[in-house]
Design brief:
There is one protein chain. It is built from 13 helices and 15 strands. The protein is an alpha+beta fold and 405 residues long. The chain has 4 domains: 152 residues, DNA polymerase, Y-family, little finger domain (Dna Ligase, domain 1, 2-Layer Sandwich); 102 residues, 2-Layer Sandwich (Alpha-Beta Plaits); 50 residues, 3-Layer(aba) Sandwich (MutS, DNA mismatch repair protein, domain I); 57 residues, Orthogonal Bundle (DNA polymerase, domain 1). The strands form 3 sheets. It has a 7-stranded antiparallel sheet with strand order 1-14-13-15-12-3-2. A 5-stranded mixed sheet has the order 8-9-4-10-11. It has a 3-stranded mixed sheet with strand order 6-5-7. The structure holds magnesium ion. Magnesium ion (MG) binds next to strand 4.
């Protein structure tokens, strides 16, 4: 029997690599996952999805104001120097009031706002902040599609956090970002990406908007065509000429008419005009592990009581695994048990295995318990997965010759 053992004080069941998230969800039950970059995943239940679009508020400028609080309240632009041919990479809301916007030549920005303060682009800093924000996203879902350093779509359809409420998850994410980074984010919550993105702009900065499935029709009817991402200046002008002001107007013009005037984009416009967008949230991340943990209201006094709890946690692990397998192919390589004793000492133990196995978990639990022989406040059961590029044959081979326990 091959066993790798690790004990740590912060209780990560997998403290090897990758992003690790462990959040106590309602019912005192938590799930933790770790992931690594690679393939895409698809989504299901197209009409009942819960998509969040998170957009940081003037991200680069916000980070600069955080680093140098004396800049707060003043118009600032991040970018190249005014006497060079630099452009505005980002600016704060104070600068925007003067008509400054990103991609504008810095010299022009100074004409509009002579008192504009400029700071150089500090990309390494923005990247490091972005990384932390992404790790916050991962506490809530693994299905994340980053659009840029400061923007991402999250599919939280299957998230168990906040009782499954996407609205509360968005609030919590924004709160966590603010507490951790002292900068604000806005969020849009909707059944698809198109509407989530529109909604995140609605109550900006530092706000959020929800469009429920029931509200989609009436919301879209009145939505100005300019709010559609992909409708640039030229298209917007053409639409105005054609008297197309709202998405309701687009729908009235119909599929053929839209195709006639806007070519292949017309087909997308027609779907948008009906509030339809079936594009999945495409993640670059794949799951490296999955685990279910339970923290008990009252410490479990002995090994016997721990073994009894494993039945329940095991059931939950199987449920989670089933859901995870609907999103991507997963090949387990090891089984992991984590125990946290009443003195917060935490121990993890693992063994090779390609399938969850209740008896094996019980044996691992017994062995882990011997290390502390104290009351237990938390039990975690988990699986670690092979990287996706690992030949599938290996898993099959392991199945035919299961490791002896
Ligand atoms: Mg932004």
């Amino acid at each position: 029997m091959e066993q790798v053992v690790s004990t740590d004080s912060d209780g990560n069941i997998d403290n090897t690599e990758g992003v690790i998230a462990s959040i106590v969800a309602p019912e005192n039950k938590s799930t933790s996952t770790s992931t690594s970059p690679k393939s895409a995943s698809s989504n299901k239940n197209l009409n009942q999805r819960k998509i969040i679009h998170i957009d940081m508020d003037c991200f680069y400028a916000a980070v600069e104001m955080r680093e140098n609080p004396s800049l707060k309240g003043k118009p600032i632009a991040v970018g190249g120097r005014p006497n060079s041919r630099g452009v505005v990479a980002a600016c704060n809301y104070e600068a925007r009031e003067f008509g400054v916007h990103s991609a504008m030549p810095m010299s022009q920005a100074f004409q509009k706002c002579p008192q504009l303060i400029t700071t150089p682009v500090n990309m390494d800093l923005y990247k490091s902040v972005s990384k932390i924000i992404h790790s916050i996203f991962h506490e809530f879902t693994d299905i994340i599609e980053p659009l840029s350093l400061d923007e991402a779509y999250l599919d939280v359809s299957d998230s168990l956090h906040c009782n499954g409420s996407a609205t509360l998850i968005a609030e919590k994410i924004r709160q966590r970002i603010f507490e951790s980074q002292n900068i604000t984010a806005s969020a849009g919550i909707a059944p698809n990406k198109f509407l989530a993105k529109v909604a995140s702009d609605w109550n900006k900065p530092n706000g959020q908007k929800v469009i429920t499935p029931a509200e989609v029709d009436s919301f879209v009817k009145k939505l100005p065509v300019k709010a559609i991402s992909g409708v640039g200046k030229v298209t917007a002008k053409r639409m105005t000429e054609l008297g197309l002001i709202t998405c309701g107007d687009l729908e009235e013009l119909g599929q053929e008419g839209l195709h006639k005037y806007f070519g292949s984009f017309g087909e997308r416009l027609y779907k948008y005009s009906k509030g339809i967008d079936n594009r999945p949230v495409e993640t670059d991340w794949i799951r490296k592990s999955l685990s279910v943990e339970d923290t008990f209201a009252k410490d479990l006094p002995n090994l016997e009581s721990c073994l009894l709890e494993i039945d329940k946690i095991y059931e939950e692990l199987l449920n989670r695994l089933k859901r995870a397998k609907q999103k991507q192919r997963l090949f387990a390589k090891s089984l992991v048990v984590k125990l946290r004793f009443d003195d917060f000492e935490t121990t993890t133990i693992q063994m090779a295995g390609t399938e969850p196995d209740k008896d094996a978990y019980k044996r691992l639990c017994s062995e882990a318990w011997q290390r502390g022989q104290r009351p237990v406040r938390l039990i975690g059961l988990g699986l670690q997965f092979n990287p996706p590029d690992m030949p599938e044959q290996l898993s099959l081979l392991e199945k035919r010759h299961p490791p002896t326990l």
